Amino acid sequence: MRKILLLSLSLMSLPALAAKPAEEEALRVTQFKWLSGCWGFDTADGVYEEQWTTPTGNSMQGLSRRIGEGYTREWDFMRLVTSGGGGFDFTSQQYGGEESRYNSVGVAANRVVFENPDRPFPRKISYEYAAPDKLTMRLEGTSEGRPMGLSFPMKRRTCP
Known about the structure:
By secondary structure, the chain is of the alpha+beta class. The chain has one domain (2-157): Beta Barrel (Lipocalin). Helices cover 18% and strands 54% of the residues. It contains one helix and ten strands. It has one helix spanning 2-29; strands at residues 37-43, 46-52, 59-68, 71-82, 88-94, 100-108, 111-115, 124-130, 134-143, 146-157. It has a ten-stranded antiparallel barrel with strand order 1-2-3-4-5-6-7-8-9-10. Strand 2 (46-52) and strand 3 form a beta hairpin. The longest helix is centred in the first third of the chain and has 28 residues, at 2-29. The protein is globular.
């Protein structure tokens, strides 16, 4: 009887133990809450926009687009998710094509850096938040064998 009681108590505690890692992952992704919302900047060729969901579960979803002459010229589906290795992954799916995955190589309170050494450009993607309303996204890598970098100095905007 005592063994059955101990076994029952052990089995009852399993859901609580299983939920703890998921809760920890969700808590960890909330550190990127500063990224959620709508961002953008005007360029000579049009407008660049990014929109990020609030952290839910272990991920955030994002969408970027560049609008020029009244048309969407470029677009990208993005996701920031906790990885199995204890860090974070950034996935990008430009124009609905094949997904590219970048692993976090630096995480701070208002900055995150992702890298994929197998890609020439972008090889590195970083986001840096400056309160209350500035966000810089930077792409780095090589193009035709030469170093290349692009910065996107965005400001918080009202979401549509």
